[in-house]
Predict the 3D structure of the following.
Amino acid sequence: MGKALRKLGVLGGMGPLATVDFLQKLIEETPATRDEEHLPVIVYSVPQIPERPPAITGNGPSPLPHMLEGIYTLKRAGVDAVAIACNTAHYWYDDLLREGGVPILHIADAACRALANEATRVGLIATGGTIAAGFYQQRFAALGKTCLLNSTHEQHTLVGPAIGHVKRGELTQAHALATRAAQGLLARGAQGIILGCTEIPLAIEFGQSAVSAHCIDATRALARGCVRWWQDDRD
């Protein structure tokens, strides 16, 4: 008998459009010429998960039990590792890893791997929950890089509304706001910007914008990390 085929699980639904975007980028990043060369993927996309940012700031119920239900479902389906198509959900990474009992590919590790070595001032566009969680800032510091964030005003008037527009399928409005948030970071000296919310790449990519050349899409970086995981097993 040949070696068992490894399967990737995707914990999604946070939000649904971001999950589809991750799957699209997973396909785009796979060097396949026929169906059989793509990753075997099992997706759990159940959007009825409590909002992550309010839970982090103590203003909402924890999504952990719901996310663990997803992990358990994927594990029963036979996955060998999990990718989470949501940055903020990684606040619970250690709990999900410990209680879920299956390896999880961390989106921030994948995004930081894409950073240019010469970039010492890195912008981060993310939810308030992801910023409060600090897992990107910790990784930047370990790499000797300074993290630049949008101002509180920009967070409330640009980043948060852009994310909301994406969740409502209003990509034109989202693009205008997300682009302004990125421009603000570039004006303050960012040499690169990590799009650390899975809705933000959808907003930036929707229209033609010069800022996209300076951005690292954490969603695509995670997809590339999943492809590497798959190829390492096949080599």
Residues 166 and 202 are 7 Å apart (CA to CA). The chain has two domains: 8-106+221-234, 109-219. The mean pLDDT is 94.
